[in-house]
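Duplicate of #3305? Posting structure anyway:
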């Protein structure tokens, strides 16, 4: 059976990544590509690397016949996404890649994103899209909320450790490096080549990054009490990838054993041998996440490092993994491609 797929926001990085992944998917056919500002253009014009594919032309959202669509990926900006999804058919399966449905509490959404939620009924039914921890809920869901790419990386490093109680919940420091594609495709002065290259910088310093809302929500739910991590993201002059270095208090060997056991049967999560550290170059363009654990020279402390591709495992690959589950397919379908190297 072939499932008919629509992608809204197809002219952005995550939209293009979805097209790249779905292009070789044996059970999906892209029937609509929404991109209001570039409506009427072909994907070959917008993304020349996709010119070999037979794809529909970009169109406005109101030109799409959703009665002919089985599942829709929504890769629109936050705030825009909720207003669009609110008006889509209530029988349509949707995977949203924006931030609009990640936070369960409307007050928390307003706190982190600055506006009232415009689709509270949809927010109430949305399932958080961290696949490895919400599989059963995702299989039965109509609307799945993709995680933040930074939030996914940090959670892969920390969720099993919090669940097992092998680290001090009040002593978690997360230092994260993120490639520039995580900021989207819109023109921004600070992302110009001359502004960004040959250096990197911290941003959202002091606990203002919006993905902290996801960390607070998920880690506190696991622990059964409030857990707040100290988190500083850094923008690096690279196109793809996230590297999270997490400093924790606990026995390093026990931490490594906990992660290795938690992810032993996960197809996309690879825990490296003790003492080895992952690199973004080893997961580039793939849906894999590599995790390493080392001990620190200070007794009782450990370092956990996680690497993933922000556009694939951190966003579009995760979205496809969730869509596979929602459509009753093997979740690895279309996603076992090897990383690109060098």
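Output from current build:
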């Amino acid at each position: 059976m072939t499932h008919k797929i629509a992608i809204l926001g197809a002219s952005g990085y995550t939209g293009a990544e979805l097209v790249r992944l779905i292009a070789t998917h044996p059970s999906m056919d892209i029937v609509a590509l929404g991109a209001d500002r570039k409506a009427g253009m072909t994907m070959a014009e917008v993304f020349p690397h996709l010119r070999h594919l037979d794809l529909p032309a970009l169109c406005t959202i109101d030109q799409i016949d959703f009665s002919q669509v089985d599942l829709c990926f929504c890769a629109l900006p936050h705030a825009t996404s909720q207003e669009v999804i609110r008006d889509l058919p209530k029988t349509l399966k949707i995977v949203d890649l924006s931030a609009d449905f990640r936070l369960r509490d409307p007050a928390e959404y307003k706190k982190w994103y600055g506006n009232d939620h415009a689709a509270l009924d949809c927010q109430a039914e949305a399932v958080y899209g961290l696949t490895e921890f919400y599989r059963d809920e995702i299989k039965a869901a109509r609307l799945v909320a993709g995680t933040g790419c930074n939030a996914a990386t940090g959670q892969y490093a920390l969720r099993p450790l919090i669940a097992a109680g092998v680290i001090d919940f009040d002593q978690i420091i997360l230092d994260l490096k993120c490639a520039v594609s995580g900021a989207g495709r819109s023109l921004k002065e600070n992302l110009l080549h001359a502004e960004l290259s040959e250096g990197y910088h911290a941003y959202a310093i002091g606990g203002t990054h919006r993905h902290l809302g996801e960390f607070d929500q998920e880690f506190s739910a696991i622990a059964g009490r409030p857990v707040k991590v100290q988190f500083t993201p850094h923008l690096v002059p690279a196109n793809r990838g996230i590297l999270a270095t997490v400093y924790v208090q606990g026995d390093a060997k026990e931490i490594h054993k906990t992660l290795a056991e938690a992810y032993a049967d996960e197809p996309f999560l690879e825990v490296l041998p003790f003492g080895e550290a992952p690199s973004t170059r080893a997961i580039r363009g793939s849906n894999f996440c590599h995790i390493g654990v080392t001990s620190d020279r200070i007794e009782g402390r450990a370092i956990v490092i996680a690497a993933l591709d922000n556009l694939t495992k951190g966003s579009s690959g995760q979205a496809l993994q969730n869509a596979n589950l929602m459509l009753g397919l093997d979740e690895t379908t279309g996603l076992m491609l090897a990383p690109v190297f060098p």
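Confirmed duplicate; merging threads. The chain has two domains: 3-146+313-326, 150-309. The chain has a mean pLDDT of 95.
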